[in-house]
Amino acid sequence: MNRATQGSETHGFLGEEFLTWVWFRWETDGGEFTLSGGRVVGVALDDFLAFAAPSEDETEQTLRRGLPTRAAPARTALRQGQRLKRARLLIAEGSRQWSATLDAPTMTLNGVKLPEDAEECESEQDRTADRTGNWLQLHEIVQALYARFLKERLRPDYLETIAEQQARWMAS
Amino acid sequence: MAAIRRSGGVVAFHWQGKLRDPAHEAFAEALEKRRFRTIENAASEEVSIGWVTPRDPTGDSFALEDLDGGTGTWLRVRIDKKVLPKKWLQIHRDAAEKARGKKLSARERRELKDDLTEKLLPRVLPTINLVDALLFHERRLVMLFSTSKSVVEAFGKLFFESFSLPLERGNPLRCGLLADLSADEKHNLEGAEPVRWTDHVEGGRHPRLRPVQHEPQHAEQFPQQYQDGEQQQEAGA
């Protein structure tokens, strides 16, 4: 197996579980996450969802536009135990807001939109510095969110506790 | 010089080991050694990949201030590609077959293509692709602003050739190993198995969860891994 793709192939499911967990937490806890260092971010799922195909022979289901998380096919997919493979996320911290589509098995961010440039940017150099900071912040927020998920996911009692709560939510 | 982009796709890479400090000349020198070289007039070279700076797309200068991206270092790769237009090839092939009155053999087609490549490639202008990346030295992180497989591979190769450090693309395992997890958690991460969210909600029962031994794609649709006793117990519940 190619080293570059190894983690995606062996642990891609964890990325999908992560994205499904974000949805679960967003709907059940309101989407406010306190990350390491006390950082508070808001995360919501936006207008694009793609569910992982349940098996190699089955079709991947994609929902676009409107409120796909409330659409009947999305709830059905959850009830069938399907995981999210890709989703468009809205991430907010203070007055800044990012949007990006996370490809969960590879943890790649597509279609990113950074927050508006800060008002105090007067030159292209200022704008570059501001955007560089925003690219890094986005990366760090996603990593910290994933770390928070892993803290729950890797608990010895995960299946009896959080996974059971998530199962009830998925079946609701 | 325009500011760095504020939208698009991005792939994160990490490296292990010591990378030259981007604030020092040695870093710029490493880029310069693998600078972009033009293939505008080349007769045979079809692809050229190398470093340039955001200010100078020729690859002729590597001033440290041109790499300044604020908290990160702004890298730029230039990828030029010359491709012989397929329609040209087809026209010449059709003409050759018409003149001979029969189809060309595979070997003759290959020879024709080689001959045309040699003649026409110097006249073909390359397509130019400028790809940016942000390097965060202290975090050992590079964010590449392209998700194209070929660009990702080319970037990794160029980075290795320049700094003798392999880049490791972020993925759920790599990101977890880099996260602030305990040794036990990291051990559990490496051996983690997918959770199977079973689809049994008949009779108002909550679905049951079971870890599975294999990826769900390869697993059966229903929880065959239940012990016989459990299955009977559930069926009777």
User: How much helix, percentage-wise, in residues of chain B?
Assistant: 25-40%
What is the element string of chain A, with H for helices and E for strands?
Answer: HEEEHEEEHH
Principal-axes shape call of chain A: globular
Describe the biggest sheet of chain A? 6 strands, antiparallel
Give the overall average pLDDT of chain B: 84
Low-confidence stretches of chain A are none
Tell me the greatest interface: A-B, 64 and 60 residues
- Please state the oligomeric state of the protein chains shown: heterodimer
Instruction: Give me the number of helical elements of chain B.
Output: 7
Largest sheet of chain B: 7 strands, antiparallel
**Termini distance of chain A?**
39 Å
Uncertain ranges of chain B: 215-237
Rg of chain B, Å, rounded: 27 Å
Task: Outline the secondary-structure elements.
The complex is a heterodimer of chains A (172) and B (237).
Chain A lengths: L2 H27 L2 E3 L5 E12 L9 E4 L7 H8 L4 E10 L2 E8 L4 E6 L10 H30 L8 H10 L1
Antiparallel strand pairs in A: 1-2, 2-3, 2-4, 4-5, 5-6
Chain B lengths: L6 E9 L9 H9 L13 E6 L15 E2 L2 E10 L4 H15 L5 H15 L6 E10 L4 E4 L4 H15 L3 E3 L2 H7 L4 H8 L4 E3 L11 E3 L16 H9 L1
Antiparallel strand pairs in B: 1-6, 1-7, 2-4, 3-4, 4-5, 5-6, 8-9
Explain this structure to me?
The complex is a heterodimer of chains A (172) and B (237). With 172 residues, chain A is α+β, with helices and mostly antiparallel strands. Helices cover 44% and strands 25% of the residues of chain A. Chain A has 4 helices and 6 strands. In chain A, strands 1, 2, 3, 4, 5 and 6 form a 6-stranded antiparallel beta sheet that branches. In chain B, the strands form 2 sheets. In chain B, strands 1, 2, 3, 4, 5, 6 and 7 form a 7-stranded antiparallel beta sheet that branches. A two-stranded antiparallel ribbon of chain B has the order 8-9. Chain B has helices spanning 25-33, 86-100, 106-120, 149-163, 172-178, 183-190, 228-236; strands at residues 7-15, 47-52, 68-69, 72-81, 127-136, 141-144, 167-169, 195-197, 209-211. Chain B contains 7 helices and 9 strands; from the N terminus they run βαβββααββαβααββα. By secondary structure, chain B is an alpha+beta fold. Residues 215-237 of chain B have low confidence and may be disordered. The chains are: A alpha+beta (172), B alpha+beta (237). At the A-B interface, helix 1, strand 6, helix 3 and helix 4 of A face strand 1, strand 3, helix 5, helix 6 and strand 8 of B.
